[in-house]
Amino acid sequence: MAKLFNMTAFSGSIGEIVGCKGPFGFYIRRKPRKSKKQPTQRQLEWREKMAMAAGFLAPLKEIVYLGFATSYGSHTKTIAMNRAVSMLIQHALEGEYPNFYINPAAVVLSRGALSRLRDLQVGFINRKLRIQWSALLPTFNGFADDRVYILAYNTTERTVVVEMIERRAGVMEVDLRTESAGSELLVYVCVSTYDGKKFSNSQYLGRFEV
Fold this sequence. Notes:
CATH architecture of the domain at 116-210: Sandwich
Number of helices: 3
Low-confidence stretches: none
Structural class: alpha+beta
Strand content: 35-45%
CATH class of the domain at 116-210: Mainly Beta
């Protein structure tokens, strides 16, 4: 259905014509037609890569929006997700078509110059995740009230548990007893300033089974 703005401008489709409102006014274009050509091997490979990367990051989109937008001075969610997808394809997607797989240790969820956590130690006992790090302030670009985000990504159920604490705490425990037995969890940590305007590069802490 098209929406008429005046006698010369409309938004929507009429037959084979589409009306659009852009930053510089209204314009019209022809509806794109599906190609009858069979996709090439390269196109099939690229589509598979895009689908895998976007699918993996979808449950993590909220941290991606923060961790990629702020580091590039942009708050556009689409741009942030596109950057994360591109980086995953370049650095974390391995194997040969059609047997691609994602290396979780190479996945990046946030980017930035803020200091990462140091001297990390991770334990998983009685379905509780215990993470320790040095509470001493880094020599530069790190603050006691920085926010530490712990993300436990349940790849079996495609859900994410997120907990937050200040850098100065030096330790955090995440209760995962509500996760279904047998689920696989990928654990990441990201650090931001208290106002969320700066982020660190994310860190991968390992794979655990509940």
